[in-house]
Write a structure and sequence with these properties.
With 336 residues, the chain is an alpha/beta fold. Helix content is 36%, strand content 11%. It is built from 13 helices and nine strands. The protein has a seven-stranded mixed sheet, sandwiched between helices. A two-stranded antiparallel sheet has the order 4-5. Helix 3 links the parallel strand 2 and strand 3. The chain is globular, with a radius of gyration of 20 Å.
Length: 336
């Protein structure tokens, strides 16, 4: 596996991002923005709108995976974006597979799952651009066969309709080690530029490529741009800042995964209008809200391997804590 190395250049990150998006338009049949309502995708959205306008490529196709368990402030912001005349919004309310780090018994959850309608944190949005699984005949109905968000790309961006697609995403190397490694790894298969990553998933057909035009931006860059250019933004961040979170710590995403659940406590204070539903949406959420930042959840540490166990025995011990079919699924992922 080839790895890219860091190098210093004279250009600023804003100009580089615009150049990368223009290069994306040069290469692909279609260019879309994957929009979460967060700070990073806000920058990508506005930069892509600028490039699309200059190239006479408007309206811009924008895809929003509505993850259900998110604040109304985020939804209000997405609605404002959807109302922009230069945006063609694709608002997706699909029961995609998400990690639930709050429970070993139910390690996955599915936003907008029809069988869980009584538990939904919010009602289904009543908006013309909203699409559900019923609008995608190929979307699996059985919970254990439902795809993750990356796996949906192959179902949505079919080659006959979209050709080769460049998906602009707000992935930044500063955000996490995982995202840093994503940028470093060139991967296999078709490659175009260092900031473009061929999508690998169960449903991808080789025509979808992730484009990360702001991967080298710092958090201060991401927040300087909306201030300098008077862009609209998600006011969820204002509430999180009042809680004392730094600009790097503040995230707009469901808080049930292993890392995000450390911030479950924030929702009871900042978003009381959805907290009652949120703590009952997935198994273990209420407990995680109380104890995720304690030794009960191995906060600031990892379980120690006993000296009389091998690493394989240690891994197998923790895997067997999960029930089927998840135990087999985890073993398969580890072996792969």
């Amino acid at each position: 596996m080839a790895v890219n190395k860091k190098k210093d250049i004279d250009e600023n990150v804003y100009d580089l991002a615009i150049k990368r998006i223009n290069r994306t338009y040069d290469i692909f049949d279609n260019v879309v923005v994957m929009f979460s309502g967060g700070k990073d995708s806000t920058v990508c959205l506005n930069l892509a709108l600028q490039a699309a306008k200059e190239r006479n490529k408007l309206p811009l196709d924008v895809f929003f995976f509505d993850e259900e368990a998110i604040p109304y402030e985020t939804i209000d912001y997405v609605k404002r974006v959807a109302d922009l005349p230069d945006v063609r919004m694709h608002w997706l309310c699909l029961p995609v597979k998400h990690r639930n780090g709050c429970s070993l018994k139910e390690p996955f959850w599915y936003p907008w799952a029809p069988e869980d309608e009584e538990k939904w944190v919010r009602p289904l949005p009543d908006y013309d651009c909203v699409k559900t699984y019923k609008d995608f005949p190929m979307f699996p109905k059985e919970p254990d066969k439902r795809p993750s968000v990356p796996d949906c790309n192959g179902l949505i961006f079919t080659p006959d309709k979209w050709g080769e697609v460049g998906i602009i995403m707000g992935i930044r190397s500063e955000e996490s080690l995982t995202r840093y490694r994503t940028i470093l790894q060139t991967g296999e298969g078709k490659r175009y530029e260092d900031y473009m990553i061929n999508l690998k998933s169960k449903t991808a057909l080789g025509n979808v490529v992730k484009v990360c035009p702001i991967y080298d931006m710092k958090t201060v860059d991401v927040w300087t741009a909306p201030y300098k250019y008077n862009w609209d933004y998600n006011t969820t961040y204002d509430l999180l800042e009042k809680l004392g979170l730094t600009h790097l710590q503040a995230r707009c995403a469901p808080p049930y995964g292993e890392e995000p659940m450390r911030g479950l406590w924030q929702y009871s204070i900042a978003f009381p209008d959805i907290w009652d539903k949120m703590q009952n949406r997935v198994t273990g959420a209420a407990t995680a809200a109380r104890y995720a930042n304690t030794e009960l959840y191995a906060f600031n540490g990892l379980p120690q391997k006993p000296d009389d166990m091998t690493w394989l025995e240690f891994i197998d011990y923790h895997v067997t804590k999960h029930k089927e079919p998840y135990r087999t699924m985890i073993k398969k992922n580890i072996n792969e």
